[in-house]
Automatic annotation (TrEMBL):
UniProt GO BP: regulation of DNA-templated transcription
Protein name in UniProt: DNA-binding response regulator
Organism: Tengunoibacter tsumagoiensis
Lineage summary: Bacteria, Bacillati, Chloroflexota, Ktedonobacteria, Ktedonobacterales
Family matches, as Pfam families: Response_reg, Trans_reg_C
DNA-binding interval(s): 127-226
Entry superkingdom: Bacteria
Gene3D superfamilies (UniProt xref): 3.40.50.2300, Winged helix-like DNA-binding domain superfamily/Winged helix DNA-binding domain
GO cellular component: cytosol; protein-DNA complex
Modified residues (4-aspartylphosphate): 51
Domain (OmpR/PhoB-type): residue spans on this chain: 127-226
Keyword terms: DNA-binding, Phosphoprotein
Record-linked InterPro entries: CheY-like_superfamily, OmpR/PhoB-type_DNA-bd, Sig_transdc_resp-reg_C-effctor, Sig_transdc_resp-reg_receiver, WalR-like, WH-like_DNA-bd_sf
SUPFAM superfamilies: C-terminal effector domain of the bipartite response regulators, CheY-like
Length: 247
C-alpha cells in the first residue's frame, strides 16, 4: 500500500516515513503544498497522511482539488485541539482525523482501519449499484445520483451511504456505522459520524438544513428514508415510526 506523508516538520516526516517502511508500507514524503501536489499525482497514493498547517497553501482546498484527479483516502494529523477544527477537516472530506501527539500504535490503527475500507472499495463488483427511491448509489465509482443530478463521494461517504441504503427505512446505530465504515468495534464517535452525515446531506438533500432523506434518530443513529414521489402517505409512514423509536 502506498502512503504519502505531508507535513512541514521534516523531522517528523522522516521519522514517520522510516517507521512506516518497517511495517511494510511504501512511503513518499512532502514538506510543502507544491511538493505534495507533485508526489500525489506522480505516485498516486492509496492513503495520504496530511497536516493541514502548511504555510504555503490551504491544504484542505488542495486536497479537494487533487482528489478530483486521484481519489486517495485522507487521514488528517494536526495539533489542533478545538473540536471545530476536527469538524472542519471532516466536513472538508477527510476520511479520518488524529491529534498530535500520538503513539505509533494509534496512527497504525487508523491507517489499517481506512486501508481496510480502501480494499473493500476495490473489491466491489462493477454491478455494485444500490437504488433507494430517487437515490442511485454507485459504490464502485463513489458517485451518487439524485433526481438525475450526480455528485462525487469520498470513499468514506460512499461506504456510509451504502450502509444506509442497504438498510433503507431501518435505523443504523452509531456502533453499526463505525463497524461497517471504519472497520473496528467500539463506541461510535458521534462527532466523526455527524460530520460525514452532514457532508452527505450537502450532496444529496434539496435542503441540507431540513433533511428529506437522511434523518437523525436522537440517541439511536441515522436512517435513509425510501422516498416516493407518488403519495404523501407513503412518505410520512416511516417518519412516524422513527418518532416512536426516538421517544
Amino acid at each position: 500500500m502506498k502512503l504519502l506523508v505531508i507535513d512541514q516538520d521534516r523531522d517528523l516526516v522522516e521519522m514517520l516515513a522510516s517507521w512506516l517502511k518497517t511495517v511494510g508500507y511504501e512511503v513518499y514524503r512532502a514538506y510543502t503544498a507544491e511538493r505534495a501536489k507533485h508526489e500525489w499525482m506522480e505516485h498516486r497514493p492509496d492513503l495520504v497522511i496530511m497536516d493541514t498547517a502548511l504555510r504555503d497553501a490551504d491544504m484542505l482546498a488542495v486536497c479537494r482539488d487533487l482528489r478530483m484527479k486521484h481519489d486517495a483516502l485522507v487521514l488528517v494529523v494536526t495539533e489542533g485541539h478545538d473540536i471545530q477544527d476536527e469538524v472542519r477537516c471532516l466536513e472538508s472530506g477527510a476520511d479520518d482525523y488524529i491529534k498530535k501527539p500520538f503513539f505509533p500504535s494509534q496512527l497504525l490503527a487508523h491507517i489499517r482501519a481506512v486501508s481496510r475500507r480502501a480494499r473493500l472499495t476495490l473489491e466491489r463488483s462493477p454491478s455494485s449499484l444500490v437504488v433507494v427511491g430517487p437515490i442511485s448509489l454507485d459504490s464502485l465509482h463513489n458517485e451518487v445520483t439524485v433526481d438525475n443530478k450526480s455528485a462525487r463521494l469520498t470513499p468514506t461517504e460512499s461506504k456510509l451511504l451504502h450502509l444506509l441504503a442497504l438498510n433503507a427505512n431501518d435505523v443504523c446505530t452509531a456502533n453499526q456505522i463505525v463497524t461497517h465504515v471504519w472497520g473496528y468495534d467500539g463506541d461510535g464517535d458521534a462527532c466523526l459520524i455527524k460530520a460525514h452525515i452532514r457532508h452527505l446531506r450537502q450532496k444529496i438533500e434539496p435542503d441540507p438544513s431540513n433533511p428529506h432523506y437522511i434523518l437523525t434518530v436522537p440517541g439511536v443513529g441515522y436512517t435513509l428514508i425510501r422516498r416516493s414521489t407518488d403519495t404523501t402517505v407513503e412518505q410520512e409512514e416511516p417518519v412516524r415510526s422513527l418518532h416512536a423509536l426516538s421517544s
